[in-house]
UniProtKB/TrEMBL annotation:
Domain of life, per lineage: Eukaryota
Keyword Signal: yes
Leader sequence residues: 1-22
Species name: Channa striata (Snakehead murrel)
Name the record gives this protein: Uncharacterized protein
Keywords of the record: Signal
Stored PANTHER family: ENDONUCLEASE DOMAIN-CONTAINING 1 PROTEIN ENDOD1 (PTHR21472), ENDONUCLEASE DOMAIN-CONTAINING 1 PROTEIN-LIKE (PTHR21472:SF16)
UniProt xrefs under SUPFAM superfamilies: His-Me finger endonucleases
Listed InterPro entries: DNA/RNA_non-sp_Endonuclease_sf (IPR044929), ENDOD1 (IPR039015), His-Me_finger_sf (IPR044925)
């Protein structure tokens, strides 16, 4: 009976583990619907590349290939939704908590606007200070 209980518990843990796993992974399995024919671009290689299924408010928003050594996204894929042009989106600068810690939630968060950005954030992704002397730039483009 003990063996049966142990096997059942192990099976349940393995079955449910994919539901609670972090979305930084080696594949875009959970967000491949953002790509044409559900296939991510091929041929981009590197040891510091991270595949992110980015969420905001618990909704998948982007599939992003991120280079953590350069602190830049190489590409992001999403499904374009045309607006009527009357509503302006005033979205704050966001950071990706999945790049900061495995313990963070998968939801993007607003970047703290105080003078000092916490080191774990600026060590892994671009922050406002990176654009201080930039003549012209467009965030995330």
């Amino acid at each position: 009976m003990h063996l049966f209980s142990t096997c059942t518990l192990s099976f349940l843990l393995l079955t449910v583990s994919h539901l609670v796993s972090a979305t930084v992974s080696n594949s875009f399995r959970d967000c491949r619907h953002f790509f044409y024919l559900q296939a991510a671009p091929a041929g981009i290689r590197g040891i510091n590349l991270k595949r992110l299924c980015q969420t905001y408010a618990d909704k998948l928003r982007y599939a992003t290939l991120y280079d953590s050594s350069r602190r830049i996204p190489l590409y992001s894929a999403y499904v374009f939704k045309k607006s009527d042009g009357k509503k302006r989106m005033d979205t704050p600068w966001m950071y990706e908590p999945q790049l900061v810690s495995d313990d963070e939630s998968g939801n993007m968060k607003a970047l703290p606007l105080n003078a000092d950005t916490p080191p774990p954030i600026e060590d892994n992704q671009a922050v406002l200070e990176d654009f201080t002397d930039a003549v012209e730039y467009s965030r995330a483009h």
